[in-house]
Amino acid sequence: MAARTVLEAPQIQRVLTRIAHEVIEHNRGAEGLVLLGVPRRGVPLAQRLAGRIADVEGTEVPWGALDITMYRDDLRSHPVRALERTEIPEGGVDGRTVVLVDDVLYSGRTIRAALDALQDVGRPRAVRLAVLVDRGHRELPIRADHVGKNLPTSSGERVDVLLRELDGVDEVRISKPDAGTAIDGSGDEAGA
pTM, whole model, 2 decimals? Predict the structure, then answer.
């Protein structure tokens, strides 16, 4: 697959700083915020956002992870998935503003699953969505409140987010699969 880089480390840093400021502005401060990353790459993004908000507001923002594996609507077609950890910060989510954090917003199905998983954790006052990349092609009526970069793509392209915590580098790449490589609905290569 030939890939082109659309965001590099300095751009990702600026985007996360902007999203942090947007979250603070919309919430009128950091009071009552909880950031929950959707594994895998949403978790380090939530941690980074929490750090940036703490730098600006001078107060710690709780963050954690929300596993959506068992809430996905494609379990029958892709039954083998490793469970991730759900880690809800002390104090929970009841009555708080939860910002779900993910790397790429595509069909909306991952976020639908996250909303279902969140119902089993508690009852937030409000739920917002922050994503590093919105690539379009929604299948469900879901919209991000905070978007790092709108990245129009064709459904045959793949968007890969690489983060230093998991991949050793911060980058966002777009690639087209080689001829003959099947793409499933999530943008992942079928059988990969």
Answer: 0.90
